[in-house]
């Protein structure tokens, strides 16, 4: 028996069911799309936020390091400036001390006894270094007499020590500004021994400078070894 044809009400009811089903499917699909879109949006948003945060952190770190470097440079400049100022003041004190010493040797030649003894010793030392038969002595013009006597006494001492004879010629070539003393020149004029008071003081300054620094300012913490 063939199925009975549906009447209008039945057809309408079936259509309403189909429409309801389609609408339900559409709503479910729309909800799925919305949920997926929300999830993708949330993921993308989190990604963008993270990237932005990383960029901000990187910029902050860069600025922080830049500030630290600037601070270190400023501290280093301040430390160097203070150190240079201290070194300059110390150098001024040393030069003041050396200036006092230079002033003192200017009056040394005024003590004829001590000065004559120094000249004789300086000439003997020079004779022994040169070990020649003829030597030229260079002295100040005002020291001619005392230098002549000191040279003769030194020649006798040299002969007694070395068993050799030596003669000398005296020339007044040292400057009047020189504190005193003598220069000995070999016969070939190739060797000069500077035994002036000025040179002796200069050598003493160089030799004693490290000790003077330690005595005045204490050990240098930046140096492990001292000479």
Description:
The chain is an alpha+beta fold. It is 70% helix and 9% strand. The protein has 4 helices and 4 strands, in the order ααβαβββα. It has helices at 8-108, 112-130, 144-162, 197-217, and strands spanning 134-138, 167-171, 181-186, 192-196. A 4-stranded mixed sheet has the order 2-1-3-4. A hairpin with a 5-residue loop joins strand 3 (181-186) and strand 4 (192-196). Helix 1 (8-108) packs across helix 4 (197-217) and helix 2 crosses helix 3 (144-162). It starts with 7 loop residues before the first helix and ends in a 10-residue tail after the last helix. The model has no long low-confidence stretch (mean pLDDT 85).
Quick rundown:
The chain is an alpha+beta fold and 227 residues long. It has helices spanning 8-108, 112-130, 144-162, 197-217; strands spanning 134-138, 167-171, 181-186, 192-196.
């Amino acid at each position: 028996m063939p199925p009975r044809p549906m009447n209008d009400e039945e057809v309408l009811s079936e259509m309403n069911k189909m429409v309801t089903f389609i609408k339900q499917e559409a709503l479910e699909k729309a909800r799925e799309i919305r949920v997926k879109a929300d999830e993708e949006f949330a993921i993308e948003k989190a990604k963008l936020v993270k990237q932005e945060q990383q960029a901000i952190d990187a910029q902050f770190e860069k600025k922080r390091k830049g500030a630290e470097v600037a601070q270190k440079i400023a501290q280093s400049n301040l430390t160097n400036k203070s150190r240079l100022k201290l070194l300059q003041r110390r150098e001024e004190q040393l030069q003041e001390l050396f200036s006092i010493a230079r002033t003192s040797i200017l009056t040394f030649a005024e003590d004829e006894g001590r000065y004559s003894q120094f000249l004789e010793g300086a000439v003997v030392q020079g004779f022994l270094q040169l070990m020649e038969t003829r030597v030229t002595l260079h002295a100040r013009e005002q020291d001619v007499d005392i230098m002549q006597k000191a040279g003769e006494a030194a020649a006798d001492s040299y002969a007694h020590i070395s068993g050799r004879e030596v003669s000398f010629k005296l020339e007044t070539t040292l400057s009047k500004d020189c504190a005193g003393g003598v220069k000995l020149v070999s016969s070939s004029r190739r060797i000069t021994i500077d035994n002036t008071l000025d040179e002796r003081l200069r050598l003493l300054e160089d030799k004693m400078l490290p000790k003077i620094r330690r005595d005045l300012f204490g050990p240098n913490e930046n140096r492990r070894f001292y000479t």
